[in-house]
Specification:
With about 700 residues, this protein is of the alpha+beta class. The protein has 27 helices and 20 strands. The strands form four sheets. Strands 1, 2, 3, 4, 5 and 6 form a six-stranded mixed beta sheet that branches. Strand 9 and strand 10 form a beta hairpin. Helix 3 crosses helix 9, helix 10 runs antiparallel to helix 11 and helix 18 runs antiparallel to helix 19. It is globular, with a radius of gyration of 33 Å. The protein starts with a helix and ends with a strand.
Length: about 700
């Protein structure tokens, strides 16, 4: 553990103007506050914040960050308060400490909810000042270094999984590769102990058999480049065990089949020498096709720059080579930490880098703990592809991203308005996966809305969160519209005319936010008719006795203008279409379920609120289901599809459900305009020689 004077000396080495007295006061404060607290290792607890502060000095960060590292656990684990820290160390330090502090004292939350709330607060604080992230990453790194002292295996695995899923990818996104690699290694050891032991054992075996082979290859590379007039530094290393494990899993290969377990790094003086070195190496040894990447001309989103290539050395040995300038190397190893080494003038750089803005948008859009954790993990994983707008703007996206992901990456409003896409000048489906270098032109219309089905293929956290938020808003608006229609029916049973004043009073009595909240509660059956009546006119339900709770509508409630799947759902059992006589089943916190009046499953809805519904004037469009018994002979399906096409019916699903020679029984889902349209289709099918039987299900 660093002693007090050692920590201060480290800071003074790179920041001579640092306030020595303030640093000493922070060191003493954390020692006093943590007092006799012990870590799982048996060490005094204050050794942890001191070591975290030491990690911050290695990054040459300003004194406010060092003090934050020293104090980062005091509010969570001692009686210290943010107000006290602000008084002793200033508002900036207090703000940073508050950003790092967890919310673990909220006992009522589940484990996932606590994790999500901690992450939510952390991301919001990080958006204001990246030093919060740097302290948090150092805090997690030191905790991982001492994780083996925790006795409970399930706790070790939970912390390791959180590190692998959240903090290692975050370190990668800000370019702190040293932190990322060590976190992954330590987490891998806990999560896959057998895999870790096997791979480290094999690496040790190779090392003992081949002696100084890595050094010998590094020397060969340096000699080849020196002969070309390049003064470079060359270093080599084995890939770390987790990297090998992940490659084995991705490629479905054994350890023996991994041929490029060695990686070499070439450091040059300038960019021109990087490309010259690349040419020399490709001339000296055979390049492996498809393995070259130029991150100098197209840097990663975290600022990482380097040339990556793979070569075949002697005896068919494969090796990876990274070529970069010395300045790039310094930035690459510690990423944003190099940029956020704050000057002593107190200047604060803008923490709102692009990917961070996306994370904050995800925080705002996510509905619950599970959704936040899922979307955040999507947003921070790093395997990327590069795609362009027609004007040449470059966007980095995760592998597997679709046109919809691209639209949301450009802007949330563009994603919401998307209706189509051209990829490299060709019209393509929205679910098309993008490839490196694709030019993507998004087609939009002002009145379009995100579709729930998009959630089935988007991969980015930002797209998923934005779609869910838009769908929830539309769903809420449509349920509220149903609620407003129901309110008219309920109000009709009350004495006198119900106006705005009575509704406002009811909202207050029910302790609701606004009128939309009130209508939504009615539409989603969170309020019974009696509760609504009593809120509108207190005492009005006294004479109702044991009258059933469900709504007695004197006229059918129209669902015209509402979207299936939003405010209501068309039942799968009877597939109602416009023109059918329909009723609705309404249960608390469920969408209204629409059935035909003669549906056999309506008997199961005895516990639901029954609504008399109508389609409304000029309502068109729904999916009807038919059962067809066809003769089992060549051409029958073609004849049936021809009949459907000539009657302008779109087939959404076709399935054979039974085969009894010489017949085949099929179920067909059709998009039709209304009941008359469906009836015409059934008549045309029954007239066909190919169809033995046709009936609606």
């Amino acid at each position: 553990m660093l002693r007090q004077y050692e920590l201060v000396e480290r800071v003074k080495e790179y920041a001579p103007q640092a306030d020595e007295a303030l640093l000493n006061r922070a060191y003493v404060y954390t020692v006093q506050k943590h007092g006799t607290q012990k870590r799982a290792s048996g060490d005094p607890y204050f050794s942890h914040p001191v070591e975290v502060a030491g990690l911050m000095t290695e990054l040459k960060l300003d004194q406010q960050t060092i003090i934050t590292a020293l104090l980062h656990d005091t509010v969570e684990d001692t009686l210290a308060t943010i107000e006290e820290i602000e008084k002793l160390f200033g508002p900036d330090v207090a703000r940073l400490v508050d950003g790092v502090t967890k919310l673990s004292k909220i006992e009522v939350m589940t484990e996932n909810e606590r994790a999500a709330e901690n992450l939510r607060k952390f991301l919001l604080a990080m958006s204001e000042d990246l030093r919060v992230l740097l302290v948090k990453l150092a805090d997690r790194l030191h905790n991982m270094r001492t994780l083996h002292y925790i006795k409970k295996e399930d706790k070790r695995r939970r912390i390791a999984r959180e590190t692998m899923d959240i903090y290692a990818p975050l370190a990668e996104r800000v370019g702190m590769y040293e932190y990322m690699r060590e976190m992954q290694m330590l987490a891998f050891e806990q999560l896959e102990p057998e895999g870790y032991a096997t791979i480290t054992g094999r690496l040790a075996q190779i090392r003992s058999q081949e002696g100084g082979q890595v050094d010998a290859i590094a020397l060969s590379i340096k000699q080849v480049l020196a002969e070309a007039g390049l003064n470079v530094e060359v270093s080599g290393r084995e890939k770390h065990p987790y990297s090998i494990w992940r490659k084995m899993a991705e490629r479905h290969v054994t350890f023996e089949q991994i041929t490029d377990i060695m990686a070499f790094r070439v450091l040059t003086d300038n960019v021109e020498e990087c490309y010259k070195a690349l040419g020399v190496l490709h001339t000296a040894w055979q390049m492996i096709p498809g393995r070259f990447k130029d991150y100098i001309s197209t840097p990663k989103s975290n600022g990482y720059q380097s040339l990556h290539t793979a070569l075949i050395f002697e005896r068919s040995m494969r090796m990876e080579v990274q070529i970069r300038t010395r300045e790039m190397h310094s930035t690459n190893e510690f990423g944003l930490a190099a940029h956020w080494a704050y000057k002593q003038g107190g200047a604060r750089p803008d923490g709102q880098v692009g990917w961070l803005r996306d994370l904050i948008e995800i925080v705002d859009a996510s509905h619950d703990a599970e959704e936040l954790l899922e979307n955040t993990k999507m947003a921070i994983y790093q395997d990327r592809i590069f795609a362009f707008t027609p004007k040449g703007a470059l966007f980095q996206l995760p592998k597997g991203s679709t046109a919809v992901d691209f639209a949301y990456a450009v802007h949330t409003n563009l994603g919401n308005a998307t209706v189509g896409v051209k990829i490299n000048g060709r019209h393509m489906p929205l679910r098309t996966r993008l490839a490196n270098g694709d030019v993507v032109e998004i087609i939009k219309t002002p009145n379009s809305e995100p579709q729930l089905s998009w959630l089935g293929f988007v991969v980015t956290g930002k797209a998923r969160a934005s779609i869910r938020r838009a769908v929830r808003a539309k769903e809420r608006a449509e349920v509220a519209e149903i609620g407003a229609k129901l309110l008219d029916e309920i109000a009709g049973r009350l004495p006198g005319r119900i106006g705005k004043k009575a509704i406002d009073a009811a909202i207050q009595r029910l302790d609701m936010r606004d009128e939309e909240d009130f209508m939504f509660a009615i539409g989603s059956a969170r309020l019974t008719d009696r509760q609504v009546m009593e809120a509108l006119v207190p005492g009005s339900t006294a004479d109702l006795g044991d009258e059933p709770e469900w709504t007695h509508t004197e006229r059918a409630i129209s669902i015209r203008g509402l979207t299936p799947g939003m405010g209501f759902e068309l039942a799968d059992c009877c597939h109602p279409v416009p023109g059918d006589r329909i009723v609705g089943l309404r249960r608390p916190d469920h969408k209204v379920e629409v059935h035909t009046i003669d549906c056999l499953t309506l008997a199961n809805g005895v516990d639901a609120d029954w609504l008399d519904l109508s389609w409304g004037e000029r309502t068109t469009g729904a999916v009807g289901r038919l059962q067809l018994v066809l003769y089992n002979r060549p051409g029958t399906l073609a004849e049936v599809t021809q009949i459907l096409a000539s009657n302008r019916a779109n087939v959404t699903n076709l399935q054979m459900v039974q085969r009894d020679e010489p017949f085949g029984t099929y179920e067909v889902d059709l998009e039709v305009g209304d009941l008359a349209h469906l009836t015409r289709i059934v008549g045309a099918l029954r007239a066909s020689e190919a169809v033995a039987e046709a009936q609606r299900l």
